[in-house]
Amino acid sequence: MIIKKPQPKAKGNRTEAKQNTSSCLKQGTASTCKTMQGSQQELRKFPEAASNLTERSNWNCNLENGDVHEDDTRNDDKGSSFKDIASSINGRSAHNLSSSVLRKKSDLMLVSKVRFQVLRSLVANLQEVILGTKLAILFPAIPLAIITDFYGFGRPWIFALSLLGLTPLAERVSFLTEQIAYVTGPTVGGLLNATCGNATELIIAMFALHQNKIHVVKYSLLGSVLSNLLLVLGSSLLCGGLANLKKEQRYDRKQADVNSQLLLLGLLCHMLPLMFRYAAAGGKGAAGASDYTLQLSRASSIVMLIAYIAYIVFQLKTHRQFFEAQEEDEEDEEEKAVIGFWSAFCWLVGMTLVIALLSEYVVGTIEAASSSWGISVSFISVILLPIVGNAAEHAGSIIFALKNKLDISLGVALGSATQISMFVVPLCVLVSWAMGNMMDLDFSLIETGSLAFTILITTFTLQVPKVVY
């Protein structure tokens, strides 16, 4: 009789089955173990909830570490009970368990939790708004300007520090306006951009009008238009052409034509009071000519504001397809709002107030800085103030031109010049009328001639929808 010995593979198969079962259990409970261990620290103050949770966590962690008894793997009842526990834990996470216990115990922990969330949100907003720009290094100039004025230091120092502080504020106002536009939509966003796009120039002009410094208002606004059309647009075309030598830079001529026509309309409104003054000076005298020039300027300002409102409707509603080329380019780098609506609104109001304070310093100390530095007020108003107010737009226009996105670059330069010429200038004329001042659109012969040559050169340059450096 041949007696067959038991196959040694049976024990091996049983051991292998035990190992497979253990590995499956370990894989199924590894994430649960880590989650439960993290939640134990939250529930130390609540023993009745933590005790049950701790038992489950310890048993699951023993499975993960390989401490599995053979009886546990064979017993179907215990295996089914483990499956029930694991499924219940997976169905309701430890975070939900701890949250339910917190709701039952006290609202004090919830209050502290909300406060922590608010503090964390505030820190995140500070990081995005204050540290989210490369110009953040200039923010310390703001408190330095306030301290300098409070202790009565040299007025030229107040002027210089105020100019440095206005530079990052102007860029951040544009950023906050974009964040609000993500929530409000393109129509309201376009109106906000029309109002806040050149907030620095507008606020400086208002303070200058309040102090009856009409020449500062005229020079600063004229300098903004010239700076956008000559410096910003010219440097953008030059840098973009040099960076894309092997490419032919093209742009959509439709939006360039619309902006050029508005600039020509603004030039006509500036030339009419000038020509009327020279024509009427011989018969009515200087006083009579000045009165008629002032009335003509106020009527022209109303026409300019109506034309600019029509341009906003034209751009955002009726003929939006003309500007779709620019929007398609922006889709390549689509951005989302990084802060909420109310946070952006509060930051916008606060920064506008700071801009108003620094603008008051600038207007009040411009003559002292002019005499101390040996520079004329007209040079400071035409050159320095526009560069400070449009520093962010200057950099942005050049960057888009380097990336061969000429439509956006032209939109920044031409759009800002159009906004100053057709919105800020006539608004200042009407505000001065309400204040009892006598600001008109007569910018004298040399200033109006410079504006005319600049607009004509820009219009003829953009007749062909392709440019080279």
From TrEMBL:
Region (Disordered) location: 1-42, 61-80
Compositional bias segments (type: Basic and acidic residues): 66-80
GO biological processes: intracellular calcium ion homeostasis
Keyword Membrane applies: yes
Domain of life (superkingdom): Eukaryota
Entry GO MF terms: calcium:proton antiporter activity
GO CC field: plant-type vacuole membrane
Subcellular location: Vacuole membrane
Membrane topology qualifier: Multi-pass membrane protein
Keywords, comma-separated and alphabetical: Antiport, Calcium, Calcium transport, Ion transport, Membrane, Transmembrane, Transmembrane helix, Transport, Vacuole
Comp. bias (Polar residues): 18-41
Cross-referenced Pfam families: Na_Ca_ex
TM regions (residue ranges): 129-151, 157-176, 188-209, 221-242, 262-279, 299-316, 337-358, 370-389, 410-433, 445-464
InterPro entries listed in its UniProt record: CaH_exchang, CAX-like, NaCa_Exmemb, NCX_ion-bd_dom_sf
Biased composition (Basic residues): 1-12
Family annotation (PANTHER family): VACUOLAR CALCIUM ION TRANSPORTER, VACUOLAR CATION_PROTON EXCHANGER
Physiological role: Vacuolar cation/proton exchanger (CAX). Translocates Ca(2+) and other metal ions into vacuoles using the proton gradient formed by H(+)-ATPase and H(+)-pyrophosphatase.
Family: Belongs to the Ca(2+):cation antiporter (CaCA) (TC 2.A.19) family. Cation/proton exchanger (CAX) subfamily.
Name this protein carries in UniProt: Vacuolar cation/proton exchanger
Lineage: Eukaryota, Viridiplantae, Streptophyta, Embryophyta, Tracheophyta
